[in-house]
Structure formats: structure tokens, C-alpha cells
Amino acid sequence: MTDTVDTRDTPDTEAPRSSAAATVATALTIRPRRWIDGWDPEDHAQWEGAGRAIARRNLRWSIFAEFLGFVVWQLWSIVAVSLPEAGFALSTGEIFWLISIPSLVGATLRIPYSFLVPLVGGRNWTIISAGLLLAPAIALAVCVANPDTPFGVLLAAAALAGFGGGNFASSMSNITYFYPQREKGWALGLNAAGGNLGAAVAQFVVPIVITIGAGAAVNLPLAGWIWVPFILVAMVGAWRRMDNLSNAKADLAGSAAALREPHLWVLSLLYIGTFGSFIGFASVFPKLIADQFPDFGAIAVGGASVSLAFLGALVGSLARPYGGRLADRFGGARITMCAFAAMGTITLAVVLALPVTGFWGFLGLFLLLFAAAGIGNGSTYRMVPIVFALRASGDETARKRKAAAALGLISAIGAYGGFLIPQALNLSFQTTGGYAGAFLGFVAGYAVLLALTALVYVRPARSRGQQI
Known about the structure:
Layout: E1 3-4, H1 19-26, E2 29-31, E3 35-37, H2 44-73, H3 75-82, H4 92-120, H5 122-132, H6 134-143, H7 151-160, H8 162-178, H9 181-211, H10 222-225, H11 228-241, E4 244-245, H12 252-259, H13 262-292, E5 299-301, E6 304-306, H14 310-330, H15 332-391, H16 396-414, H17 417-432, H18 436-464
Parallel strand pairs: 3-4
Antiparallel strand pairs: 1-2, 2-3, 5-6
């Protein structure tokens, strides 16, 4: 049984404004379990009739579900730092593993997640992927309630938080099918920014919740339990308000072709440097503050504690859209080069100035680093479709297919930076007793990535009169 979309009975849609729009809108049908047939956002009449409102409704719930994914992904960045205060006997290396393992699992899950939307439907997979967030939230709450919980069990619970990292790929894949090409950049940027803000919200809310009314102790299980109702709301909202598109198809051939393009691997390295730096530093920032400036690890406000670590993820998230906007105006490769130059300079300043700047200088430099990483994140992501349009092999259709597949693959590979940065800091601490060695390594890495961007994209494009 199928139903035509009746805009008069759907509060989230607008009535068709012309007979042409009405004619197309009647061809848009909804089958049981909210499957939509005949979806074509490039059809102007359909889009202006019922299409835009349907897409926006799906985008809203996609953002909320992805936001919770980032929240769960970043829970252990705060909780791991608080475990010793709750009576857990853990080494510095073990704490770094609890911080970094969610990024390792999340980056790996992004690859299969990007193909699941066409297989099971965007609405269906949003319900499932949101429901999977219950596992890490509840596992965290149960495991941290007992200080005798073995480290291996804690590590397994932290690994489950990787479900949240995988949500980004499926959410972006789903929204791609709903929007026309002319509005796709805006919709995907909004979806990404809304998700990234989850990292900042988690790092702001969790320290308050686990300390308010707890006296001298911390109530760590609340770090997991408080998100359970929101996850349930996301599941119900996706079930009632989202849709599946029957014409969403997985492009395995396009992904295989993209993997054979050298530019995919070059851009993945750049994305590790930008997004990987953002998510890696966001995860480890609470630990760095607690180690370098214990008195500022948690600031007492009334009966609760507030960690200023959330400011890093917040600044990086808000800077990302500006990276895309600057890339549109000045060229993504140029902005990415500037981002790497700024990141290298600021990271070097952190090492050299730390002994004299104190906490507030340290915080200010790191916020600048997060801003530069966020701008580079947006500009690098914006480079992908342009690079593939100009440099990839094949005709125009083949290049577009490769570009669409590359966006998902590059986002997955870039997320491994969230594992590499904490582990580099861990290695530096284990071998030297400090973090300066890792930061100097990051400076060298940013210099290499800057040179790579210049040699592969800026100089050749300038010689051809192009702008990437």
C-alpha cells in the first residue's frame, strides 16, 4: 500500500505553489515504514512543493542523533581523567588508552557505516545507530561504579563508545541523498557542525553532573546515565519523523575506483592533520590541563565543578564552517596551507612559552590551535570534490562518483588522528616524562603537510591558472 504525499496533512511541509509543483508532488509516494518513492531533489517543482520540508525534517533529527554520537564518542575523554579521583588505580598509559580507543574504533566503523544507509534505509539506520549508543552509555555507567573493575573491562567499555564516532559517516551519507547539489554544502556543513558540537557539550556537561551534590567524591555513573533519555528521544524521533529513500544506492564501484586514486590518499593525510588534530586534541585536552595545571583541571562553581576543556572542542567546531567559506573565496588548498602554518607555529609556541605563560597563556594558545584546526578541517573537506573534479581520471560522471565516495572514505581515515595524537603524547610521556617531544613531532608533521599541500595542489594549480 502506498500513499501520495499530501502537504495539507503534513505540518512540516508547505502546500504546492503551482500546478506543476502539485503534479510532481502527487508522484512522490510514501510506502509503509516511511519509504519514499520518486525522490528527486534536483526536480525544482518537487523540491519547492513537498521536498524541501521533508529534507529539513530529516536533517533536524539527523543532527540530533549525530550530536549524541559525538557526545558518547567523547565521554571517556572526561571520565578517564576523573577515574583516579574515584578510587581507580590506573597508570598514565592506561588512561591514555581509555581516551584514545574510542577514536580508533569510531574511525574504523565509519567505513562500513557509510554503506549501511542505502542497504537498510536512512530512517531505519538512524534508529539502529542511535540505539547502539545505549550500549556504551550504560556500559560506562556500570563499569565506573566499581573501582575494582579490571582495566580490560574498562577498555572494552571505552571501545564501545566508538559507535558514536561511526555515526558521522552514516549521517552525512543519509543527508547527501536528501538535498540538491546547490544546497548540499550548506546541509552537510550544518550536519557536521551540529555533530561536532557534541564533543564540547559532553566536556562541559559531564564534569558538572558528576560533581554537583557529590561533596568530596564524584558520581561517575551519571556520566553515562544522563544521556540514556536523550538517546531514546532520538530513536523515537527518527522512527516517527524521518524517512527512507528507495532511490538511495550504495556505490561500491565508485568507492573501489576512489581507492585507486592517489589524491584520495593525499587528501586523507591532510584530513588526518586537520580533523584528526581537532578530534585528537579535543579528546586529550582535559588530560593535558589536569597534568600541566592541576589547580585548573576543574573549577568549582557553586556545588559543581566546571572544566574549561570544553572550550577547545567548541572553538574548533565553530571555526569549521568558516574554513569552508574561506576556501570558497580564496581556494581550499591555500587556506589549508595557512591552517597548517598556523597550527605548526602555535604548537611550537606552546612548547616554548609554556614555562612562562601559565595556565591562561596555555589555554589561549590551545584555543588558537583549535581554531586553526577547525578552519583547516573545513577547507580540506571542501577541497575533496574540487580536486576530484579537476584531477581525477575518467569522465565527469565517473569523477563525481569518485568524489562522493572519497568524502566518506577520507572522513573515516582522518578520524584515526583522534587515536594517533593521544598515543603520541602517551609515548612521549612514557619515554621522556613530558609532552614536549610529541608536540615537536606535531610541528614537524604540520610542516610536512604544508609542503605537501603546496607541491601537490597550490603550485600545479597556479601554473594552470586554476584555484583549488
